[in-house]
Structures are given as C-alpha cells and as structure tokens.
Amino acid sequence: MKKVYNIAIIGGGPGGVASAVEAVILGIDDVILLEKGENHSTTIRKFYKDNKRVDKDYKGQRVELNGNIYFVDGTKESTLDLFDEILNLHRIEERFNTEVESVVKKGELFLITTTQGDEVWAKFVIISIGKMGQPNKPSYEIPLALKDRVHFNVSDCKENEKILVVGGGNSAVEYAYFLADLNKVTLNYRKTTFTRVNEPNMALLNEYAQGGKLELRLGVDIVSLEEAEGKPKVNFSDGKSEMYDRVVYAIGGMAPMDFLRKCSLEVDEHGVPLTSETHEGSVSGIYIAGDILFKSGGSIAAALNHGFSIVQEIKKQLV
Ligand SMILES: Cc1cc2nc3c(=O)[nH]c(=O)nc-3n(C[C@H](O)[C@H](O)[C@H](O)COP(=O)(O)OP(=O)(O)OC[C@H]3O[C@@H](n4cnc5c(N)ncnc54)[C@H](O)[C@@H]3O)c2cc1C
C-alpha cells in the first residue's frame, strides 16, 4: 500500500519550513518536506555571506508576522539556527537531496516525482521553490563565445540544425524528441540505460530512435566543449569529437517558471503563478508560498506568513 501524505511541501526555504512547522502545530499529521539541497534553506546558505545581517523588515517591507515562528532581526547563522530548532522540535519529516521534477494530479491525489525517480503521494501540495534555483551546469567550462549556442531549455532553438541534447532524465528525453521533429538531434547520456524516464517518454524515445529520427549516444561522457568556427565542438570521453549547431543541457535544476509549467500551473506574463486569495494555484489543491508569488521582492517574513495562512486553509479541507 502506498503511503499518502496529507501535505507534501516542495522546497525547504522559509516558505517551506513555515508550512511544515505551522501544519504540525495545527495538528496536521503526515506532512513531508522535500528539498533539493543537502539541508533546508539552500538560498540562505548559498547566497548569504557568513555573518550577514538578516532584517525582518527586509528592504523596508514591513510585515507583521501572523504565525507561531518567532523570527526577528539577526544574522544568517541565527536564522538558520531558528529553522534547525523548529524543524527538530516539531519532528518534521524531511527528505534532503530530493529534487522534485513534477507534480501531477491523479484523481483526488497528487503524484510527486523526483529526479531520482522516487514517488510521493499527497492530498495537498505546497510549492515554495524560491527564485534562486537555476538549471545545473556541467563541471567543464562553457566558452563565452558559445553563449548563444549552448542552452538549458529549448526556447532559443531553431529549425534544420544539428543539435546535441545532454542528459538522462525526462526533460532531456522530452527536449530530444520535441526538437527531433524539425532538427537532426543526438541525445547523449553518460550511462548506458535510462532508469529515470517515465513510460510514455520511454515509448516515444524508442519510437524516434528506432525510426531513425533521433540518434542515441549512450555510455559516453563529455570531457570538454570548444569553440570552432563559431560553433560548439564537443569532445567525448571515447576520444571522438563532433561539431554541432547547438548543445542543450537538461541535467537537472529546472528554472522556477519551467517547473511551474511542468506542474500544469498557469503563470502570468512575468512568470508569476496565478493564485487565489488563499494562495491556491490554477490546479486546485496546489498552493504556492514565498518568493515565487512576487514579480520581484519577497522576504523571509512574507514567506513565513504564506506558509501559516496556507496550512490553515488546507486544515479546513482535510476531513
Ligand atoms: C543575498 C540575499 C540576501 C537576502 N537578505 C534578506 C534579509 O535580510 N531578510 C529577508 O527577509 N529576506 C532576505 N532575502 C530574501 C529571502 O532570502 C527570500 O525572500 C526567502 O528566502 C524566500 O523564501 P522561499 O521559501 O520563497 O524561497 P527560498 O529561500 O529560495 O527556498 C526555496 C527552496 O526550494 C528548494 N528547491 C528549489 N527547487 C526545488 C525542487 N524542484 N525540488 C525540491 N526543492 C527545491 C531550494 O533548494 C530552496 O532551498 C535575501 C535574499 C538574498 C538572495
């Protein structure tokens, strides 16, 4: 029997931490927090300097805290300590190193899939992924001269080009067969088999590969990228090199707007998700908290308040 959580929270920054802690304080059980970093609050850990002053009323945005989390002016360290303390005190079930790839409604429930291929089922979902997430980049250097020829999504790709798509997850496969209708595409994955790709994508990939519409280059890594005649020259670990018009990487770390679209959530022209007064997105049962609710701005205190008000709303609906 699969376990069904009452609430699955995606993103362990202030919005996600507050949602989890306030839910437990309200008496909601079976709450899980899914975070792609090694610990909660990746944005604060990664982008704040050590000993940085943390203002409650950030950049003059005065916010009255409504919930139970006693957040005050302090430092990076005191803020992280506060979140450590409340997560431990309320025994929140956390899964770190867990990047959520998609959220799909299946009847009354949500199926949440991670990039490792794990599945989590929940009655309600709160998304608080912030705005600092960026697509993952390869470890080798991408020459500056190739910046218009190397991409992390397909929006700048054209027609009748020779394109290399790099990656082994659903996004890489989806990019590959999408581009293959109008281009000559090779899909490169460093492993020999695809273990994280869902069934419909796998079926389409096989159809394209067997029909000669898509070339597969598996079990080979890329060691470096060079610029040659203005185009990317890709050097593979088996000693071969090949020139392409473009290289598209899909190696994890989706940009927030792409993630929201993948969850079937409608966004406005600025990429801000459309939400009701209760912060419910265009898919009923998915709520949004934190920085992604703002075109620009946002603060820790605002994210904490979102978490508090969302779980009160969910509590009313949980029978
Ligand atoms: C340099 C800097 C200084 C700042 N100083 C202040 C300040 O002094 N006071 C203040 O109030 N605010 C400050 N802010 C703003 C504040 O950090 C944000 O408003 C706040 O962190 C927003 O919280 P959030 O939960 O919306 O998003 P975030 O804190 O960005 O958290 C999002 C979390 O989601 C995770 N995540 C992303 N994608 C996925 C996925 N697909 N699956 C699983 N997990 C995922 C990320 O790893 C991250 O941990 C500052 C921001 C910066 C960049």
UniProtKB/TrEMBL annotation:
<keyword id="KW-0560">Oxidoreductase</keyword>
<dbReference type="Pfam" id="PF13738">
    <property type="entry name" value="Pyr_redox_3"/>
</dbReference>
<keyword id="KW-0285">Flavoprotein</keyword>
<dbReference type="InterPro" id="IPR050097">
    <property type="entry name" value="Ferredoxin-NADP_redctase_2"/>
</dbReference>
<dbReference type="GO" id="GO:0016491">
    <property type="term" value="F:oxidoreductase activity"/>
</dbReference>
<protein>
    <submittedName>
        <fullName>PUTATIVE THIOREDOXIN REDUCTASE</fullName>
    </submittedName>
</protein>
<dbReference type="InterPro" id="IPR036188">
    <property type="entry name" value="FAD/NAD-bd_sf"/>
</dbReference>
